[in-house]
Design brief:
39% of the residues lie in helices and 5% in strands. It has 3 helices and 2 strands. It has helices spanning 12-23, 47-53, 61-71, and strands at residues 10-11, 41-42.
């Protein structure tokens, strides 16, 4: 398995904010402070992709979200 991502750490709160912005959503996000075991941030390790595929991250998260919405028929 080869991870593909930006290699840039993104907090869950920032990811949610960007999804809401890109989708023009006014959804009410509920954070459960009592839940445990979740993650507060994410960062793809793209070193193997760089090594094996010469992968170089070039798309910012916000732009990738916009492209996904534009290209995926499930969001139309």
């Amino acid at each position: 398995v080869i991870n593909v991502g930006s290699g840039v750490e993104t907090s869950i709160k920032d990811l949610i904010r960007q999804v809401l912005d890109v989708t023009n959503s006014k959804a009410n996000v509920v954070y459960n402070a009592h839940a445990s075991g979740g993650v507060s941030h994410m960062k793809a390790d793209v070193n193997l992709a760089k090594e094996k595929l010469r992968f170089v991250p070039s798309v910012k998260l916000e732009d990738g979200l916009k492209l996904t919405l534009k290209r995926d028929s499930r969001f139309k």
